[in-house]
Amino acid sequence: MTAPQPEPNSTGRSWPDDSPYAAAADGPSAARRRRGNAVRVATFVTGVGIAALLAVHVVESHDSGHRLSVPRTLDHGRYTLAQDAGGQESGGLDRNGDAPGMHDMTGVGGSYKAAPPRTSAHDLLDFDGDYGTVTDRSRAISGMLTWMGDSGEGDVAVPPRSITPAGASAPLTCEITSTIAVGDQRTYRPLCAWADSHTVGAVAETDYDHLATSAHAVDLAAFAARVNTIRDEVGG
Asked: Quick check: 76 pLDDT over 50?
């Protein structure tokens, strides 16, 4: 007989707030939320009514019509939205929405958890993005990867490399990071980012039921193929 599953807690996750999973999983997302800025908070306040009606947080670039979204699901429905950052993500932007290689940017982001009937109930996906004007794609990607590492995704274990999944219209820049997730065990996770003339985004995955204990255990090419799908789903 299948054991009963715990009810979702206040964060939308399916494990207790005092469990090791919650403590480990709160690290990166909590760090990002603390780095929010006035520009993004203002965006959230003005758009919260629309977001409630549409059940999806969508923001449009004021100068280009390009947009990024935080959909209810990602990766063909494999992940469901657990927490919309609601404009609180900073992505390394300053108070004016600027960062190396980009300016006048606004940010979005969300934390996702694996949707039933996935066997791993503690498989988490973090998406962070900015939209506006990107003047130097390489610097924008580098800045996003560095910021995510500083925000809790970990140290670089395998340097960034370009991967173009089958059917992709543009390459992704992907790396493997390393961190201490639970206890004293060093674990490894994939991280991919992209940039175009108006958007920059990144996706990281942590499966707390199947943590990789070596960089060789991470299939970066397979993850890149999934991030290519997610890039299309969020509008990047």
From this structure: yes
6, 98, 200 from 173: Cα distances, Å: 37, 21, 11
In the chain, which ranges are continuous DSSP H helix? Answer: 20-34, 38-54, 137-148, 220-234
Q: Where are the domains of the chain?
A: 20-234
Question: What distances in angstroms separate CA 129 from CA 4, 8, 144, 218, one per listed residue?
Answer: 36, 26, 9, 23
Residue-wise pLDDT for 167-219, tens only, equals 999 999 999 999 886 678 899 999 999 999 999 999 999 888 888 999 999 99
- Report the Cα 94 to chain-centroid distance in Å: 19
Is 200:102 a contact under the CB 8 Å cutoff? yes
> Closest Cα to residue 162, out of 175, 180, 177?
175
- Among residues 201, 189, 190, 234, the alpha carbon closest in space to that of 79 is found at 234
In this structure, the number of other CB atoms found within 10 A of the CB of residue 130 comes to 29
Is the entire prediction scored with pTM above 0.85? no
